[in-house]
Design brief:
The chain has 347 residues and is of the alpha/beta class. Strands 4-3-2-1-5-6-7 form a 7-stranded mixed sheet, with helices on both faces. It has a 6-stranded mixed sheet with strand order 9-11-10-8-12-13. Helix 5 runs parallel beside helix 10 and helix 7 packs across helix 8. The termini are close together. The protein binds L-homoserine (HSE). L-homoserine binds next to helix 7.
Length: 347
C-alpha cells in the first residue's frame, strides 16, 4: 500500500482543511483510492514549524489554536517557520503549498515550489501567484526533476476545471472560455440585488472566508485576472502575462445600476474571458458585464463560480460549483494527489 509523506507549507484554512480530511478519511482512502497520507512536516509563518519523520497526528494539528508560535509547544516543534528545512529535509515525497497569493511577484510561494521541485518533491498547490506569474518555469523544473506540479485548486477551488478541460476536453478544440471566477464579487453582486450595500456585502464575504487577504483583489478583478492567465495558458496554449489582460472590477456598480438591471431581468456579473482570434492571437479580459436572463452564466448566484468552455466539437460546455472555501479547496489538493498517484504512483 502506498503511503505518501507530505509536508504542509502554510497552515491556514486550506491546509488545515487537508489535515482534517486526512484525520477523518485516511483509512477509507486506503480502500477507495489505494493510498494513505502521512504528514511529516508543517511550516507556517505565524504558527512556526515542526518535522516528525514518523508522522504527525493530523487530528491534533487541526485542533491547535491559531496562536503565534504554537508549533513551539509541540515536541520537536519550533515557533520559527523553518520553511526551507521543512521542504527540503522532512523526508516528504510532496509538499502541499497553500500560503497566501502574492499577485505582484508570487513570492514567497514560488520559492517554496522551486525548492520542492528541485529537491525531487511533487508539488500540489492552490496558490494562483506561482502559476500565473511563473508557471512555465515551474512546469519545466518539475519535468526536469521527474516530479509533478499540480494546481487544480488555483481556479474554482475543488470544482474540476483545469483537469477537466486538459483531459476530458482534450481534442474538443477549446477556442475560448468565459466565466464567473471570483466568489467574493459574485456574492457581493448577489447581495446587492437584495438591497445590501457594497461595503456590507464585502464584509460578509470576508466573514464567510471567501475574500482574499486584501479584498481589493476580489472586487477590482485582480484575482480573476490571475485565473484568466492560468486558464488561457493552460487551455489555449497562450503565453499571457498578467499585464496582457485588460482588467476592471465591480466597485463602480451602484445599487441603482443593479436595481435597474433586475427590472429588465438582466444581471451584472464580473466576467473573465479569453478567446482565440482568427489570426491565432489570444484576447483576454476581465470586467463587469450586464448579462441577459438567457445567458448561461446569468443565473449563477452567491459565491458559486462557473465557466463555459467554447469548443468546436461540443459547442459550449459549462461547469459550475464552489469557487472558494476551506474544505472545497482542500479537496482540490486531494484531487491533485490522486492525479499524482495515477501518473507517478508507487506500485
Ligand atoms: N477570493 C477568491 C474568491 C478565493 O472569492 O473567489 C478563491 O480564489
Amino acid at each position: 500500500m502506498t503511503e505518501y509523506k507530505i509536508a504542509l507549507v502554510g497552515f491556514g484554512g486550506v491546509n488545515r482543511g487537508l489535515a482534517q480530511l486526512i484525520a477523518e478519511r485516511n483509512t477509507e482512502w486506503k480502500a477507495t483510492l489505494g493510498f494513505s497520507i502521512k504528514i511529516v512536516g508543517v511550516t507556517d509563518r505565524f504558527l512556526g514549524s515542526i518535522v516528525a519523520k514518523e508522522g504527525l497526528d493530523a487530528g491534533q494539528l487541526v485542533a491547535l489554536p491559531v496562536e503565534k508560535g504554537v508549533f513551539g509547544q509541540l515536541p520537536g516543534g519550533t515557533a520559527e517557520a523553518f520553511n526551507e528545512t521543512v521542504i527540503r529535509h522532512s523526508g516528504a515525497d510532496m509538499i502541499s503549498e497553500a500560503t497566501f497569493t502574492n499577485p505582484v511577484d508570487g513570492e514567497p510561494a514560488t520559492s517554496f515550489c522551486r525548492w520542492a521541485l528541485e529537491s525531487g518533491l511533487h508539488v500540489v498547490t492552490t496558490n494562483k501567484g506561482p502559476i500565473a506569474l511563473h508557471g512555465p518555469e515551474l512546469k519545466q523544473l518539475a519535468r526536469r526533476n521527474g516530479v509533478a506540479f499540480e494546481y487544480e485548486g488555483s481556479v474554482m477551488s475543488g470544482t474540476p476545471v483545469i483537469r477537466l478541460a486538459r483531459q476530458a476536453l482534450a481534442g474538443a478544440d477549446v477556442q475560448g472560455f468565459e466565466g464567473i471566477l471570483n466568489g467574493t464579487s459574485n456574492y457581493v453582486l448577489t447581495r446587492m440585488k437584495d438591497g445590501m450595500s457594497f461595503d456590507e456585502a464585502v464584509a460578509q464575504a470576508q466573514q464567510l472566508g471567501y475574500a482574499e487577504a486584501d479584498p481589493t483583489a476580489d472586487v477590482e478583478g485582480h484575482d480573476v485576472r490571475l485565473k484568466v492567465v492560468i486558464l488561457a495558458n493552460e487551455l489555449l496554449n497562450a503565453r499571457l502575462n498578467v499585464s496582457d489582460v485588460a482588467c476592471s472590477g465591480i466597485s463602480g456598480i451602484s445599487l441603482e445600476d443593479i436595481a435597474q438591471a433586475s427590472a429588465s431581468g438582466a444581471s451584472w456579473k464580473l466576467i473573465g474571458s479569453a478567446y482565440r482570434e482568427i489570426d491565432g492571437s489570444i484576447k483576454a479580459r476581465v470586467g463587469a458585464r450586464l448579462l441577459p436572463a438567457s445567458h448561461s452564466l446569468s443565473g449563477i448566484s452567491g459565491a458559486t463560480n462557473a465557466v463555459s468552455f467554447n469548443t468546436t466539437m461540443l459547442g459550449d460546455v459549462t461547469v459550475s460549483g464552489p469557487g472558494a472555501g476551506r474544505i472545497e479547496t482542500a479537496f482540490a489538493l486531494l484531487s491533485d494527489i490522486i492525479a499524482i498517484h495515477t501518473t507517478h504512483g508507487k506500485q
